[in-house]
Design goal:
Helix 2 packs antiparallel against helix 6. The relative contact order is 0.12. The protein is of the alpha+beta class. The protein is 41% helix and 14% strand. It folds into 2 domains: 210 residues, Hypothetical protein, domain 2 (Endonuclease III, domain 1); 112 residues, Alpha-Beta Complex (Nucleoside Triphosphate Pyrophosphohydrolase). Bound molecules: iron/sulfur cluster (SF4). The site of iron/sulfur cluster has 15 residues, from helix 9 and helix 12.
């Protein structure tokens, strides 16, 4: 199997019954999530971008806060980067926030505030891929367009007995086509959401699926053929690169040294604790702090933490250093400012735990 754009046969026999089964189940069992209470495109866009790579249980806390601060498309289009990143702090994958803002800026300033209402129009928005466009098209505009993310691909692979690697583009397209062929005449947004819901609470990504509670059990190829452990099939992943980093927690009169990360790369534009590649020993850390003109007085604590990104794992050695001078190389944030003003990614924020106890 290669990545060419060939179509793969999906056995859709029997799948015609799927929308009826899922819609009935969804009507009874859908979780009450804040973004399910309306179909307003701006609000659904915010939720869908947040839900990329992040579980609903986490997004539930961020979503209302974000919309309270930026209740309209125009408000997000005009807000400063610092405000945006602070609202996104801890959600990770910060390029999502920037793309979300670019998308609403395009609508606000390029399309006269008119939200695109076709799949093709939605796809032209920055950061809106086939999945998000499908979700918006079906949920907000009732169009028969599937939204095939990892959850939906897993479910479909099991139900239809689809045994090609689901992370290949051709496989994804084939599943999308198979789903498009069975979209119902009404409640299309609900059908999209019922698939997502099934993947989130019944046909789980990790651990055993709850087949006893599954509305699609009678159709399911994997269940009937004892093939659950084998499906979905995935291509072999590249192992994560492991990177050692030494992070300096420089403290001067109760204030912490921060600096801004450059560029658009990993965590680009966000604030960070000063850090360097490699695992430095205590003397090298003090020398570095001196070189940064912080007049280090003592290394007070040294501990290790790991942080996992999509492709990299940071093995961090964190060194807390009491300093005698606030070097101009950094901003020095007090406790309140750290909470209110600076968007500090989780990789660094977790190193501050216990600092003020
Ligand atoms: S029957 Fe089991 S394996 Fe099949 S879709 Fe339902 S939960 Fe998943």
């Amino acid at each position: 199997m290669n990545g060419r754009a060939e179509r793969i046969q999906v056995n859709i026999e029997g799948l015609a019954a799927l929308p009826g089964l899922l819609l009935a189940w969804y009507g009874e069992n859908a979780r009450d999530l804040p973004w399910r209470r309306d179909r307003e495109p701006y609000r659904i866009l915010v939720s869908e971008i947040m839900l990329q790579q992040t579980r609903a249980e986490v997004v539930k806390d961020y979503y209302p806060r974000f919309l309270e601060a930026l209740p309209t498309l125009g408000a997000l289009a005009r807000c400063g980067e610092g405000t945006l990143l602070k609202l996104w702090e801890g959600l990770g994958y910060y390029s999502r926030a920037r793309n979300l803002q670019k998308a609403v800026q395009k609508i606000e300033f390029g399309l006269g505030g008119r939200f695109p209402d076709t799949y093709e129009g939605l796809r032209e928005l920055p950061g809106v891929g086939p999945y998000t466009a499908g979700a918006l098209a079906s949920i907000c505009f009732d169009l028969p367009v599937p939204a095939a993310d990892g959850n939906v691909l897993r479910i479909m692979s099991r139900i239809a007995g689809f045994d090609a690697p689901i992370d290949l583009p051709a496989a994804k397209q084939s599943v999308t086509d198979a789903l498009a062929a069975i979209y119902p005449e009404s409640r299309r947004g609900d059908f999209t959401q019922s698939l997502m819901e099934l993947g989130a609470v019944v046909c789980l990504p990790n651990g055993a699926p709850k087949c006893g509670a599954c509305p699609a059990a009678e159709l399911c190829f994997a269940k009937r053929n004892n093939a659950i452990a084998r499906l979905p099939v995935k291509s072999r992943k590249q192992p994560r690169r492991v990177e050692d980093r030494t992070v300096l927690l420089l403290v001067c009169e109760g204030r912490i040294a921060l600096r801004r990360r450059e560029g658009e790369g990993l965590l680009g534009g966000l604030w960070e604790l000063p850090n360097v590649p490699g695992a430095l020993d205590a003397q090298a850390v003090l020398d570095l702090a001196a070189q940064w003109e912080t007049e280090p007085l003592a290394l007070t604590r040294r501990f290790s933490r790991a942080h996992v990104f999509t492709h990299i794992r940071w093995e961090m050695t964190c060194c807390a250093v009491e300093c005698g001078a606030r070097s101009h190389s950094f901003v020095w944030a007090g406790r309140g400012e750290l909470e209110r003003e600076y968007a500090l990614p989780s990789a660094f924020r977790k190193l501050l735990e216990g600092l003020y106890d």
